[in-house]
Amino acid sequence: MTIKPGGYNDVNQGWLHGWATRGDSGAVYLNGEFVVLEGQYARRKLWSLIGLHSDKGPTWGQMGRSFIKGALNSAFGLHPDDVSAAAQAGRCIESFADLDGLVFAGKVDWERDQHNEDKAVIKTPIMPDHPGYKEVMGVVPEPGNGQAGASVPAHVAHAAQAAASPVAGRPVWAQ
Hints:
The chain has one domain (2-161). The chain has helices at 59-76, 85-90, 133-137, 154-157, and strands at 2-4, 8-10, 15-22, 28-35, 45-53, 106-112, 118-125. By secondary structure, it is an alpha+beta fold.
């Protein structure tokens, strides 16, 4: 995942360093670009918006937070029901910059764009409790072991520090 900075900041929300984008409607989001790293669709790019705020209500922001949490769970091998201190620490980010370059497994979906044409998007991270996670990430960590990412391959455990460009050997699941 690469986050394209949009130049929008809101100190009260903790949105700093220009990572967020504010659209014409007033909605605030992260502009995400995703690259499939392996398989039949390797090097293909997809784009999705990760909602932070909408004047229409809290739903879009809640969906965005859920996506970010799922991507962190996927990248670091954290089971969604693991509430250990280590797992909670693995889900904490200091800045949206921590998401830039994150490698995780995600499900590709289709939606219509503004021109009514099909567009591939990633809306759902694939987490360790999903049957396809092991196929993509190589292992399934034990739930509740209290060691965030302990049984995750090194290339995944250090994904938050990885370069944003695709590197061979880093898996992502496309369907």
